Structure formats: structure tokens, C-alpha cells
Amino acid sequence: MTSRRHRRLWGRTAVPYALIAPVVVTIALILGYPLYFLVRLSLQQYGLFELIRHKGVGVGLANYRSVLHDQIFWHTLLRTIVFTAANVALTMVVGLLIALLLVQVSRPVRVLLSSGLVLVWSMPVVVAVQVWYWMTNFENGVVNYVLTHLHLGSFEQHDWYASTFSQLSMVTLLIVWGALPFVAITLYAGLAQVPRDLLEAASVDGAGAWMKFRDITLPILRPILLILTSLSIIWDFGVFTQPYLLIGQSKVTPGNFLMSIYLFEEGYFKSDYGRGAAISLLMLAIVGVLSIVYVRRMVRIGVET
Amino acid sequence: MKPRQLGWDALGIAVFVVMVFPVFWMISTAFKPNDLIVSLTPTWIPLHPTFDHFTDAIHRPYFWTDVKNSLIIVCVTVALSIALAFLAAIALARFGFAGRKLFVVLVIGIQMLPQAGLIIPLYVVLARYHQVNTLTGVIVTYMTFVLPFSVWTLRGFLLGIPKELEEAAMVDGSTRVGVFLKILLPLMGPGLVATSVFAFITTWNEYIFARILLNDQSKQTVTVWLSYFYSTNRHTDWGALMAASTLTAVPVVVFFLLVQRRIAFGLTSGAVRG
């Protein structure tokens, strides 16, 4: 009897572990081991020669010192922070405005606009980059034509990739365009939670549109806004494909590096894997700090349910 | 209709036009003859559409090889990830166990790792085991993010299935395996399909790892093929580039439209109810 109960109990507790074991083991092998290796790598001189020989030379913290004494690293970090702030602010503000617009428009327009948003959402990033580059091409890009014909100035043969600021602005437009659908549609779903009668009661009491938004809608949207903002910060800080391909088609230089491109060029492209590993760990640490808000909130949801 | 409502609707349509324009312009260019493409005055809709750019694009070197590579990578990654993730998702949705919180942190935390930060370690480790320039290396790499994503999404679908069904079956004498096969698996059909499709899309769209791990042109994926398309000749063949872009996007768009409603909220689940 006791042995049977024992077996049952044991069977009960073992089941969840048996279920997660395949995932845990796989992740330990394909991610845990490389991350452990990354730490070791960052303490070694490790280039192409060492890659072939399978053995690095320990150099202590030299890689970190080299990175932290690199002017380009600090300039890149600052540029990436400003770039991220601009992208996230634009995405959140415009996304919220589109979500509010979705509430105001009549049904057919709402269906039209939200289908359009889903279509944009589904575009693969590499495809979007190619289309963007074609539209902003200086010779016969449609953007120059439209801006000129809207009498916003003379944009004939205007090269949008001539200066760093202009290049990064193009990348920002591309990223914000791609991110808007997710943000707008999620916020629109959140707006459905705002009780109608509460808004009507507020109107009866003489509250204006802005007051209703500030005192009723915004507090209800707060948790969603928080999650979306932290997700956008994490994504935009580590963004690679859009700047690499869009600027890369003209030129990526230390003058317009973003963090992940700096990492790619210094570590992978120059085959200086040790130094690249140090940059990777610094970047992972920064993103780790940035994700605390999001991860904590999601973990609470995951643990409660 | 009130003028105020008309104003909102006009604004809504304007936003629609601006947002959708790039997609429209891609398709429009893909069907245009070359003289209309390079003309300084753009033609909005080609009245005599041509399919030449599409035939040109698919006859470019390595197109079909790279489509095949993408399909192999996507199918293996998704099949393996979903099978393993489904088991773990059951553990999360149905069992309380010591270390559960740690596992949740792992599943969510990994999804937040910036891909660029993983280039160096994955490249060097895969090089050590001679898996650079192989599809296996890319599949393994993709699983690092598809696995946690699938666990989390499938968990959400499982929570939508009432526990009582399984408990009733257990009372009736079903075994755990019986419950899994007869109740969970059929009810999870839509969830499994939706998660697989979403995993398919992420994997198909992935660029950075494929770019780094696959050097051989005959081993590359479609996104890498498309990214190199531009630099194949000095004068860009915009028509062919847009046709190639359209072809790359079509499977993704179709799949995305099918599952978007079911899955889009996984990342914010709990924050948005319903």
C-alpha cells in the first residue's frame, strides 16, 4: 500500500519534469552552451587563426578594456539610445492615435483600415527594406516625386542617404511603419475594455474629450502601454536587419553604426571574435536591464495562470 | 451622415492609403514594363501588366535552390520545435512544480535576447562542430527562439481548454496518455496549427543568422537571396527586384492573414483580455 502510494506520488511529481525535460535539455545545448562559451571567448584573443586551431589565448579583461576605451563604442551607444528613443516615441504616439482613430471611424472604414494594418504587419522585413529602398531611390523614387508635386519643396534627385541623420531617419520611418500595426491593433483591443457608460456618464457631467481620455481611457490602457513600450525599446535597441540592409546598400560606416551593426562589423566581419564576444556581453547586459519591466510582468502572468 | 463622422472617415482612409502604399507600390512596380518604371512621372496602376519580371526573377540563379533550402529549414525547425514545446506547454498549463517560475523566466527571457548578441557565440560554436554552411546549423540556431515562443503560445491555447474535460476522463478511468491522445490533441488542433504557422513565418523571414551561417550561394535562404538581389548588377532592375520581393512575401502574407487573430496577442497576453 505504502509503496503504491509512494509510486503514485513519485509519478505525479515526475510528470511535469519529464514534460519540460526535452525543451530544457535542447535549450541548454543550443543556447546555454554557446552563452557559456561566449563568456570564455570574451576573455580570450580569438581570431580566424584561433577559430581553425579551436583554441584561444587567455588575455584577461583586455577585450573589455579595448571596447570601453573605444570612442566608436561610446558614440554608437549614444546614437543607439537616441535612435531607440525616437523610434519608440514615434511608434507609441502614432500607434495610439491610430488606435483612437479606429474607434472613431465608421464600420466599413474600420474594416478597411485594420485589414490594411494587418497586411503591413505581415510584410517580411527584408522585403520591406527592398521596397523602401526603391521608393526612396534618388533617381526615380516615388517619394521624391510625390513630395515635389505636393509642393513641399524641390526633391528632384534628392538623395535620402547622403547624411547620417537622413539615413537613420529613413531607417526610423521603415521601422515605425512596420511596428505601427502591432501597436495600433493591440491598443485598439485594449480600448474595447473602456466601459462605454463610464465615458457617457463623464460626458453628462460635462467632461471634455481630453479630460475623458486622460482620466478614464489612459489609466485603463496603462498596463498595455507599459508592455508595448518595453517591447519596442528591446526590439529597437537591438535592431539589425533594417539599418544594415537599408543603409548598407549605400554605406555602413562607424559614423552611422547602431549597436548591433557595430557588433557585427567589429566581431564577425573583422573576425575578431574575442572582442566581438565582449561587445555581445555588454549588449546583452544592456538589453537585460531594459527587459526587466517586461519580463517581470509576463512572468507574473505566467506564474499566476 | 454627420460632417464630423465624414471627417474621421476621411482621415481613416488617408491613414490607410499612407500605410498600404509601400505594399501597393511593390506590386504595381512588379507588373510594370521597364519604360514605365524608370519614367520620371510615375504610373500608379499599370494598364497593361506584364509578367516578365516574375519570369525573370524565378529564373535568376539559385532562386529555386534557396526556396528549397528555406522550406527544409522551416519545416524541420517548426516540426521539432512544436513537438518539444507542446510537452513543455502542458507542464506549464496543467502542473504546479518546483522550478516552474524559473522555467517561465527562461521561456520569456530567451525571447528578449537580441539576435545580434548571439551572432558571435553561435557562429564560433557551430564552426567548432563544422556546422557553419550547413542547414543543420541554421535549424539549431532557429530553434533557440522558435522553441520558447512556441512553449509560451501553446501554453496560452492550453489554458483555453477547460481542465474539467480531462478530469472527467481521468475519473472515467482514462490514463494520462489516453487523455492526451483523446482529448488534448484533438482540441489543440487549431492552436497547434496557428502556432506552427506563426513559427513558419518567423523562420521564413529570418535574415541575420542565415546571412552569417550560410556562405555558399547554393545553401542560402530566400531572404538572403533577396538581399543580394540588388547587388547583382550595377543598374538595379527594379521590376525584377519588386517581383522577387512580392514572391518572397506572398506565402508569408497568406499564412499571416490566416492566423493573425488567433496569435497576435501572445506577446501581450494577460494585458489584453480576450
Description:
The complex is a heterodimer of chains A (305) and B (274). Chain A is built from 13 helices and two strands, in the order αβαβααααααααααα. Chain A folds into two domains: 2-58; 71-304, Orthogonal Bundle (MetI-like fold), CATH 1.10.3720.10. The longest helix of chain A is centred in the first third of the chain and has 40 residues, at 2-41. Chain A is 78% helix and 1% strand. In chain A, helix 8 (164-191) crosses helix 10 and helix 8 (164-191) packs antiparallel against helix 11 (241-248). Chain A has a two-stranded antiparallel ribbon. By secondary structure, chain A is mainly α. Chain B has 274 residues and is an all-alpha fold. Chain B has two domains: 3-44; 63-268, MetI-like fold (Orthogonal Bundle), CATH 1.10.3720.10. Chain B has helices spanning 3-30, 34-38, 52-58, 63-94, 100-112, 115-128, 135-159, 163-171, 176-187, 189-205, 208-213, 222-229, 238-263. The two termini of chain B are 32 Å apart. Residues 270-274 of chain B have low confidence and may be disordered. The chains are: A mainly alpha (305), B mainly alpha (274). Chains A and B meet through helix 1, helix 4, helix 5, helix 6 and helix 8 of A and helix 1, helix 4, helix 5, helix 6 and helix 7 of B.
What is this structure's SSE topology?
The complex is a heterodimer of chains A (305) and B (274).
Chain A: H1 2-41, E1 44-45, H2 48-53, E2 57-58, H3 62-68, H4 71-104, H5 107-121, H6 125-135, H7 142-149, H8 164-191, H9 196-204, H10 209-237, H11 241-248, H12 259-269, H13 273-304
Antiparallel strand pairs in A: 1-2
Helix pairs in contact in A: 3-13, 4-8, 4-10, 5-8, 6-11, 8-10, 8-11, 10-13, 12-13
Chain B: H1 3-30, H2 34-38, H3 52-58, H4 63-94, H5 100-112, H6 115-128, H7 135-159, H8 163-171, H9 176-187, H10 189-205, H11 208-213, H12 222-229, H13 238-263
Helix pairs in contact in B: 1-13, 3-13, 4-7, 4-10, 5-7, 7-10, 8-9, 10-13, 12-13
